[in-house]
Amino acid sequence: MVASNATETFIPAFIAVWLKLLAPDECYDEFFVKFNVLHVPCLKVLISKCLGYAIITGSFIVKVPQIIKIMKAQSGEGINLVSVTLELFAISAAWAYGAGHKYPFSAYGEAIFMAFQTVSISFLVFVYSNQLAKGLAYLSVYVGIMAFLLSPSAPLGLLAVLQACNIFTVSVSKLLQAATNYRNSSTGQLSVITVYLLLFGSTARIFTSIQETGDTMVVLTYVVAALCNSIVAAQFVYYWNSAGTNTNTSKKDL
Protein backbone atom coordinates (compact mmCIF):
# COMPACT_ATOMS: atom_id res chain seq x y z
CA MET A 1 0.00 0.00 0.00
CA VAL A 2 2.80 2.42 0.89
CA ALA A 3 4.71 1.58 -2.26
CA SER A 4 1.58 2.10 -4.40
CA ASN A 5 0.77 5.47 -2.87
CA ALA A 6 4.39 6.53 -3.02
CA THR A 7 4.46 5.74 -6.77
CA GLU A 8 1.19 7.56 -7.50
CA THR A 9 2.30 10.66 -5.66
CA PHE A 10 6.00 10.50 -6.53
CA ILE A 11 6.77 10.33 -2.81
CA PRO A 12 9.55 7.90 -1.80
CA ALA A 13 8.33 5.02 0.33
CA PHE A 14 10.50 5.91 3.32
CA ILE A 15 9.01 9.43 3.36
CA ALA A 16 5.48 8.06 2.92
CA VAL A 17 5.92 6.02 6.11
CA TRP A 18 6.63 9.19 8.11
CA LEU A 19 3.86 11.17 6.42
CA LYS A 20 1.38 8.51 7.46
CA LEU A 21 2.14 9.30 11.08
CA LEU A 22 0.58 12.72 10.48
CA ALA A 23 -2.01 11.74 7.86
CA PRO A 24 -2.97 8.11 8.42
CA ASP A 25 -5.05 5.87 6.16
CA GLU A 26 -7.66 7.73 4.07
CA CYS A 27 -6.15 11.12 4.88
CA TYR A 28 -2.88 10.16 3.22
CA ASP A 29 -4.81 9.39 0.04
CA GLU A 30 -6.78 12.64 0.28
CA PHE A 31 -3.66 14.78 0.66
CA PHE A 32 -1.02 12.96 -1.37
CA VAL A 33 -2.96 10.94 -3.96
CA LYS A 34 -6.05 13.06 -4.67
CA PHE A 35 -4.29 16.29 -3.62
CA ASN A 36 -7.44 17.37 -1.81
CA VAL A 37 -5.63 19.61 0.68
CA LEU A 38 -8.86 21.31 1.82
CA HIS A 39 -10.48 18.11 3.09
CA VAL A 40 -11.76 19.44 6.45
CA PRO A 41 -11.96 16.16 8.45
CA CYS A 42 -8.43 15.26 7.39
CA LEU A 43 -7.18 18.77 8.13
CA LYS A 44 -8.45 18.29 11.69
CA VAL A 45 -6.58 14.98 11.89
CA LEU A 46 -3.40 16.60 10.54
CA ILE A 47 -3.59 19.52 12.98
CA SER A 48 -4.28 17.14 15.87
CA LYS A 49 -1.36 14.88 14.95
CA CYS A 50 1.01 17.83 14.53
CA LEU A 51 -0.04 19.28 17.90
CA GLY A 52 0.22 15.86 19.54
CA TYR A 53 3.75 15.21 18.33
CA ALA A 54 4.74 18.82 19.13
CA ILE A 55 3.54 18.28 22.70
CA ILE A 56 5.45 15.01 22.92
CA THR A 57 8.60 16.69 21.58
CA GLY A 58 8.22 19.47 24.13
CA SER A 59 7.67 16.94 26.90
CA PHE A 60 11.28 15.80 26.55
CA ILE A 61 12.36 19.06 28.18
CA VAL A 62 9.20 20.51 29.76
CA LYS A 63 10.37 19.93 33.33
CA VAL A 64 14.11 20.10 32.72
CA PRO A 65 14.19 23.83 33.65
CA GLN A 66 12.48 22.91 36.93
CA ILE A 67 14.99 20.13 37.62
CA ILE A 68 17.94 22.38 36.79
CA LYS A 69 16.58 25.15 39.00
CA ILE A 70 16.26 22.79 42.00
CA MET A 71 19.75 21.36 41.46
CA LYS A 72 21.27 24.79 41.00
CA ALA A 73 19.69 26.07 44.22
CA GLN A 74 20.27 22.70 45.94
CA SER A 75 16.84 23.26 47.43
CA GLY A 76 13.26 22.21 46.87
CA GLU A 77 11.95 25.26 48.71
CA GLY A 78 8.47 26.22 47.55
CA ILE A 79 7.90 22.82 45.92
CA ASN A 80 4.85 21.16 47.45
CA LEU A 81 5.73 17.45 47.53
CA VAL A 82 2.10 16.39 47.94
CA SER A 83 1.21 18.48 44.90
CA VAL A 84 4.04 16.93 42.84
CA THR A 85 3.01 13.42 43.92
CA LEU A 86 -0.61 14.03 42.92
CA GLU A 87 0.59 15.40 39.59
CA LEU A 88 2.74 12.28 39.14
CA PHE A 89 -0.33 10.14 39.86
CA ALA A 90 -2.34 12.03 37.23
CA ILE A 91 0.40 11.80 34.59
CA SER A 92 1.01 8.10 35.27
CA ALA A 93 -2.71 7.28 35.20
CA ALA A 94 -3.01 9.02 31.81
CA TRP A 95 -0.01 7.01 30.56
CA ALA A 96 -1.44 3.69 31.74
CA TYR A 97 -4.96 4.52 30.50
CA GLY A 98 -3.78 5.56 27.03
CA ALA A 99 -1.53 2.53 26.68
CA GLY A 100 -4.16 0.17 28.05
CA HIS A 101 -6.79 1.40 25.59
CA LYS A 102 -4.26 1.38 22.74
CA TYR A 103 -4.89 5.00 21.86
CA PRO A 104 -2.52 6.56 19.28
CA PHE A 105 0.86 7.37 20.82
CA SER A 106 0.37 10.99 19.73
CA ALA A 107 -2.62 11.18 22.10
CA TYR A 108 -0.75 10.39 25.33
CA GLY A 109 2.99 9.91 24.62
CA GLU A 110 4.11 12.98 26.55
CA ALA A 111 2.91 11.38 29.78
CA ILE A 112 5.80 8.90 29.59
CA PHE A 113 8.51 11.57 29.49
CA MET A 114 6.74 13.84 31.96
CA ALA A 115 6.41 10.97 34.43
CA PHE A 116 10.18 10.39 34.46
CA GLN A 117 10.84 14.09 34.98
CA THR A 118 8.17 14.50 37.66
CA VAL A 119 9.40 11.56 39.71
CA SER A 120 12.91 13.03 39.41
CA ILE A 121 11.64 16.29 40.92
CA SER A 122 10.09 14.40 43.84
CA PHE A 123 13.34 12.51 44.38
CA LEU A 124 15.38 15.74 44.35
CA VAL A 125 13.07 17.30 46.94
CA PHE A 126 13.81 14.33 49.22
CA VAL A 127 17.54 14.49 48.50
CA TYR A 128 17.85 18.20 49.29
CA SER A 129 15.80 17.65 52.45
CA ASN A 130 18.41 15.10 53.62
CA GLN A 131 15.94 12.22 53.22
CA LEU A 132 17.74 10.02 50.69
CA ALA A 133 16.33 6.78 52.08
CA LYS A 134 12.77 8.07 51.76
CA GLY A 135 13.56 9.23 48.24
CA LEU A 136 14.79 5.77 47.22
CA ALA A 137 11.72 4.16 48.79
CA TYR A 138 9.51 6.61 46.89
CA LEU A 139 11.18 5.65 43.60
CA SER A 140 10.90 1.92 44.33
CA VAL A 141 7.19 2.12 45.11
CA TYR A 142 6.52 4.16 41.98
CA VAL A 143 8.40 1.75 39.70
CA GLY A 144 6.54 -1.20 41.21
CA ILE A 145 3.12 0.42 40.72
CA MET A 146 3.84 1.39 37.11
CA ALA A 147 5.17 -2.09 36.30
CA PHE A 148 1.76 -3.45 37.30
CA LEU A 149 -0.37 -0.75 35.63
CA LEU A 150 1.44 -1.19 32.31
CA SER A 151 1.25 -4.97 32.42
CA PRO A 152 -1.52 -7.11 30.87
CA SER A 153 -2.58 -7.96 34.45
CA ALA A 154 -3.96 -4.46 35.05
CA PRO A 155 -7.78 -4.51 34.54
CA LEU A 156 -9.12 -1.88 32.15
CA GLY A 157 -11.75 -1.11 34.77
CA LEU A 158 -9.02 -0.12 37.24
CA LEU A 159 -7.34 2.09 34.64
CA ALA A 160 -10.69 3.77 33.96
CA VAL A 161 -11.16 4.48 37.67
CA LEU A 162 -7.67 5.98 37.90
CA GLN A 163 -8.34 8.16 34.84
CA ALA A 164 -11.65 9.30 36.35
CA CYS A 165 -9.79 10.25 39.54
CA ASN A 166 -7.51 12.46 37.46
CA ILE A 167 -10.14 15.18 37.26
CA PHE A 168 -10.00 15.50 41.04
CA THR A 169 -6.29 14.76 41.36
CA VAL A 170 -5.17 17.37 38.82
CA SER A 171 -7.26 20.11 40.39
CA VAL A 172 -6.11 19.32 43.94
CA SER A 173 -2.46 19.06 42.84
CA LYS A 174 -2.41 22.48 41.18
CA LEU A 175 -4.50 24.18 43.86
CA LEU A 176 -2.17 22.87 46.58
CA GLN A 177 0.78 24.40 44.74
CA ALA A 178 -1.17 27.62 44.25
CA ALA A 179 -1.95 27.67 47.97
CA THR A 180 1.75 27.17 48.80
CA ASN A 181 2.64 30.07 46.51
CA TYR A 182 0.00 32.21 48.20
CA ARG A 183 1.25 31.42 51.71
CA ASN A 184 4.85 32.15 50.71
CA SER A 185 3.91 35.20 48.62
CA SER A 186 6.36 33.68 46.15
CA THR A 187 6.66 30.99 43.49
CA GLY A 188 9.85 29.71 45.14
CA GLN A 189 11.84 27.25 43.02
CA LEU A 190 9.05 26.79 40.49
CA SER A 191 10.21 27.33 36.90
CA VAL A 192 8.20 29.83 34.85
CA ILE A 193 9.23 28.01 31.64
CA THR A 194 7.91 24.70 32.93
CA VAL A 195 4.65 26.17 34.20
CA TYR A 196 3.85 27.92 30.92
CA LEU A 197 4.81 24.89 28.83
CA LEU A 198 2.42 22.81 30.94
CA LEU A 199 -0.31 25.40 30.38
CA PHE A 200 0.22 25.29 26.62
CA GLY A 201 0.35 21.49 26.57
CA SER A 202 -2.83 20.97 28.60
CA THR A 203 -4.71 23.52 26.48
CA ALA A 204 -3.62 21.94 23.20
CA ARG A 205 -4.48 18.49 24.54
CA ILE A 206 -8.15 19.47 24.79
CA PHE A 207 -8.33 19.61 20.99
CA THR A 208 -6.16 16.56 20.32
CA SER A 209 -8.09 14.44 22.83
CA ILE A 210 -11.41 15.36 21.23
CA GLN A 211 -10.00 14.54 17.81
CA GLU A 212 -8.03 11.37 18.54
CA THR A 213 -9.83 9.65 21.41
CA GLY A 214 -13.32 11.13 21.71
CA ASP A 215 -13.00 10.10 25.36
CA THR A 216 -15.03 12.54 27.49
CA MET A 217 -13.13 11.63 30.62
CA VAL A 218 -9.77 12.44 29.02
CA VAL A 219 -11.05 15.70 27.52
CA LEU A 220 -12.52 16.86 30.83
CA THR A 221 -9.25 16.08 32.60
CA TYR A 222 -7.33 18.38 30.26
CA VAL A 223 -9.95 21.13 30.59
CA VAL A 224 -9.49 21.05 34.37
CA ALA A 225 -5.70 20.87 33.99
CA ALA A 226 -5.66 23.91 31.70
CA LEU A 227 -7.78 25.94 34.11
CA CYS A 228 -5.64 25.01 37.12
CA ASN A 229 -2.36 25.54 35.25
CA SER A 230 -3.59 29.02 34.35
CA ILE A 231 -3.94 29.85 38.06
CA VAL A 232 -0.32 28.93 38.81
CA ALA A 233 0.81 30.72 35.63
CA ALA A 234 -1.05 33.86 36.75
CA GLN A 235 0.75 33.73 40.09
CA PHE A 236 4.07 34.17 38.30
CA VAL A 237 2.81 37.48 36.96
CA TYR A 238 1.40 38.52 40.34
CA TYR A 239 4.47 37.57 42.39
CA TRP A 240 7.09 38.49 39.77
CA ASN A 241 8.28 41.54 41.69
CA SER A 242 7.55 40.23 45.19
CA ALA A 243 10.25 40.32 47.84
CA GLY A 244 9.78 36.58 48.43
CA THR A 245 10.50 35.71 44.83
CA ASN A 246 13.53 37.95 44.64
CA THR A 247 14.90 36.42 47.83
CA ASN A 248 14.73 32.89 46.48
CA THR A 249 15.70 33.44 42.88
CA SER A 250 16.63 36.03 40.34
CA LYS A 251 13.98 36.97 37.78
CA LYS A 252 16.42 35.88 35.13
CA ASP A 253 16.70 32.43 36.70
CA LEU A 254 13.78 30.77 34.96
TrEMBL record:
Any Pfam family: PQ-loop
An annotated GO cellular component: membrane
Keywords: Membrane, Repeat, Transmembrane, Transmembrane helix, Transport
Repeat in keyword set: yes
Domain of life from the UniProt record: Eukaryota
Swiss-Prot/TrEMBL GO biological process terms: oligosaccharide biosynthetic process
Compartment(s) of residence: Membrane
Membrane topology (UniProt): Multi-pass membrane protein
Presence of the UniProt keyword Cell membrane in the record: no
Regions crossing the membrane: 79-99, 111-129, 141-169, 189-207, 219-240
PANTHER family found in the cross-reference section: MANNOSE-P-DOLICHOL UTILIZATION DEFECT 1 LEC35 -RELATED, MANNOSE-P-DOLICHOL UTILIZATION DEFECT 1 PROTEIN
Family: Belongs to the MPDU1 (TC 2.A.43.3) family.
Protein name per the record: Mannose-P-dolichol utilization defect 1 protein homolog
Native source organism of the sequence: Elysia chlorotica
